[in-house]
Amino acid sequence: MRIIVVGSGYVGLVTGACFAESGVNVTCADVDSDKIKQLKDGTIPIYEPGLEGMVRSNIEKKRLSFTTDLKEGIDGSEVIFIAVGTPPGEDGSADLKHVLNVAKEIGRIITKHIVVVTKSTVPVGTSEKIRNIIQIELDKRKISIPFDMASNPEFLKEGAAIDDFLKPERIVIGIDNEKTREIMNRLYMPFVLNNHPILFMDIASAEITKYAANAMLATRISFINEIANLCDILGADINNVRKGIGSDSRIGSKFIYPGTGYGGSCFPKDVKAIIRTAKDKGYKLNVIEAVEKANEYQKNVIFNKMASFFDNDLKNRVFGIWGLSFKPKTDDIRESSSIFLIEKLLKAGARVKAYDPAAINETKKLLGDRIEYSSNPYEALVNADAFALMTEWAEFHLPDFNRMAELMKNKVIFDGRNIYDAAQLRKLGFIYFGIGRR
Fold it and tell me: In terms of Cα–Cα distance, which of 349, 367, 353, 366 is closest to 322?
């Protein structure tokens, strides 16, 4: 089977590599010629564990290729996945210009039946817009070529995307005819041999499923963060509360870890997009709007604790920061709580020394020389007035606290992920601040 994936960013590259791994002949297309050149050489422009080896292996086996020529990739393909970016517009809605531009190109190029699949996260109704644009282009060419639409939202966690694709909890596919079902079922067959289900549904339902899933996960995060903030006020310990509610099978323990707010490329923009979609239809999503508002507040929590401890005098103080990416196992700093904190510290006149195992290069693109970058975690603590743990990378879990105490000017820790033992740190002479910790 031969397919083409348009867009070689995070979703497109993972999708293409994983299908190639299952034996499909895949072409990944992108308008960025520099990126395509890198990929042809086996160089991966993003950080994702396991992806580089998979890409190189399938290039060698000639199952995975890259091109800037969309026509070259479409020829001979049964399915075309649209996996280009849908960044948030100024009003919070998903910007579909890249998706719709691809639709135009498809209409200008196709010569035989093909299934056009939206892999990008798009609002309800986008597949119909794509269908109409393709048909308009076919009408301009004065030819009749059958094609079908499908929606196949991705559910990939950055840092675990390969496993999520190869061993999915579920595969959601929106279709409107049996021929498309047969083609998509054949394509995904290798991934469901271990009883991972394909959930076929109508296209509109598939489109909203992605937004609903991310909105629900964001809701859980904002909920536990608000309870953690209340624990701070009441003198309770959120770790005990989290275990108490997480043991209820109706609630469960996933996504109820308090922190500094959700970030990344999905939750913030998808929450905004579903709110915008509802507003456009005259409906107010009260709960989800509250989720977004709570998250905006949560990103200030560590800074507020710092400002309170130092009596609002942060000028010229030195802060060591561990973690720049929005979560571990990725170099993605989009909507990162750490970057948010750093910006506020810089605005208050503080100095920042930061370390991250993967995201320093991405941070340099954004912040330049406004902060100091450290080559290891301890270098970031030299003469620091305080230290903040912002991303729970595995290498941060068991540091040498005695060494930290020797390096730091003041033994003050702000634990934005609640991964340290507060009692142990206090015995070592540290002043400890967590989120919702006694």
Answer: 353
pLDDT tens sequence across 404-420: 999 999 999 999 999 99
Q: Nearest CA to 302 among 310, 224, 353?
A: 310
Q: How many CB atoms neighbour CB 63 within 10 A? A: 19
Chain segment 152-196, per-residue pLDDT in tens = 999 999 999 999 999 999 999 999 999 999 999 999 999 887 777
Q: Which residues of 25-39 are buried (b: 16+ CB within 10 A; e: fewer)?
A: bbbbbbbeeebbeeb
How far apart CA 251 and CA 238 sit, in angstroms, is 16
423 sits in which H/E element = helix 422-427
17 by Cβ neighbours in 10 Å (0-12 / 13-18 / 19+) ranks as buried
Question: Residue 199 and residue 219: Cα distance in Å, rounded?
Answer: 24
Contact of 211 with 121, CB cutoff 8 Å: yes
- Give residues with Cβ within 8 angstroms of 171, minimum separation 6: 152, 188, 191, 192, 196, 197, 198, 199
Q: Output DSSP code: residue 253.
A: S
The residues facing 299 across adjacent strands are none
Task: List the beta bridge partners of residue 97.
Answer: none
The length of the chain is 438
CB atoms near residue 19 (< 10 Å) = 26
**Per-residue DSSP letters for 380-420?**
GGTT-SEEEE-S--GGGSS--HHHHHHH-SS-EEEETT--S
Active-site amino acid positions: 266
Burial of 61 (0-12, 13-18, 19+ CB in 10 A): exposed
Domains identified in the chain and CATH numbers: 2-201 (3.40.50.720), 211-297 (3.40.50.720), 299-433 (3.40.50.720)
* Beta-bridge partner residues of 148: 115
Phi first, then psi, for residue 177 (nearest 5°) are -160, 165
- Model pTM score: 0.91
Tokens of 26: 């895949």
Q: What percentage of the chain carries pLDDT values higher than 90? A: 92
Exposure b/e, 262-277, CB count within 10 A at least 16 = b:
bbbbbbbbbbbbbbbb
Calpha distance 72→47 (Å, rounded): 28
pLDDT band for position 257 (50/70/90)?
A: very high
Nearest CA-CA partner of 321 in 369, 269, 277, 374: 374
